[in-house]
Amino acid sequence: MNSVATAVTFTVPEISWAALAPILCVLGGGILAVLAESFVPVRARRSSVIGIALVALIASAVALVMRWAVVTVTPSSLGEYIDDPLTIAAQGILVLIAFFAVLVIADRSEAGDGAFAGQPSDRPGSSDEERSDAKGYQRSEMFALVLFSTGGMMIFPAANSYIALFVALEVMSLPLYILAATARRRRQLSQEAALKYFILGAFSSGFMLMGSAFLYGYSGSLIISDAATPTPQTAGMHVLLLMGTVMVMVGLLFKVGAAPFHAWTPDVYTGAPTPVTGFMAAAVKLAAFGAMLRFFQVVAAPLQWSLIPIMIVVVVLTMLVGTFAGLVQMDVKRMLAYSSIAHAGFILLGILSLVRYSAGHVLFYVLAYAVATVGAFGVITLVRSSDDEGNIGGEVTDLRRWAGLGKTNPGLASAMLIFLLSFAGIPFTGGFIAKFVVFSDAFAGGYVWLVALALACSAVTAFFYFRLVRVMFFMQPREDVAVVRSEGFAGVAITVCAVGTIALGLFPSPVLSLLNQVVVLLP
Question: Which residues lie below 8 Å from residue 34, measured CB to CB, with a gap of 6+?
């Protein structure tokens, strides 16, 4: 019997390692941090993991700077990954925010306690937890989790495939579910927050998956940009396109905390460890808005006559809920949670505007908001309770107990003042410039009445920001509150964020010039 030999040829895929280098630096750092957590001796473990995290983020930033000069001239599509100015700009801001967040996460007080439980697996109040605290045992896996989450966030705005988008979503979210449950104090509240975040995050993933299935049925392709160029066989199936687009947008709106998909935000922000709250509030919003910019301009923009009414309802609800629910909050973290919801509504105006430079202006807004947010939550980590004997306790989040902070610690209170002024959009801060450029884009896009509503809501939100200012600077100090001395990592982050907030307000032109080069590649 004769046998015929057939030659089998394989095509070796071409991988653009230069384009993937920033993400590989971060994810590789996460893997090294896990290995260090497993094998480095206890005494050197924490410092080793912190060093790995910071070096990985710096290496990623260097790779992004080198990549920026390439993509601004020749943006490219790698199939499921798009390497264009939007990707590099969003990733650069993410790495910057993650770097300062790691500094806040790494900080410990003079008593040697940080924001995280010694061993998060210990049952709250158990003898195991008491033994871990007595021995000063401190796990450091939170740094690896932050790096893995950051890696997922960096993929999120670059994804051009429904599979890549979903995988990036899960890589971003799963570490945050764990981190939210690791608070040193009020552990049960922390674990409850993590469970709420996980359950509602699963809803977010479900909406995104179902929307992706509809869009696949419409275009016959898993590539997101293919939905903008349907084949003749799919003509007339616009219902699938509209349903799929709405459901994917719902998944993204969950992540930015837009109403009515905001229910997780106040509880998770309150229960999670404060450094993790700052990281989530800043970085998750940036990643989700980056992905939303690409998806909305590539897929949703052609549907604007059907989609815009839905988005307008979401924008109005988000601004109103964030503004008026924030007025009644007496907890600083919950107040900032509702503030973040209001800011999500303001940023959505830039998403809807679809005018020239609007993508770069949205990134500028998120940058200004993120810098102030990391700094504000860094301040909260240092304001602690104190008993009659001078023993330092947990963080003080009751707004009334911040009374007189400007007299007992004027430097820290002044930094918080700068961040609150930026949130309120007061001139000479980054928040003012951010609101100005985004509201101007919305005005140019024809959303005049929405801009008027946004200005009114912005004025109302200033009330609860200045309520905290009044408490800090115009009331007598309390004896049961103290500003804790720490290792200084948080102090560095707070100082740089405060200076950055002022610099973005006084000298915005260099940053705006860079971000005005942001374009969304349409493969």
Answer: 141, 144
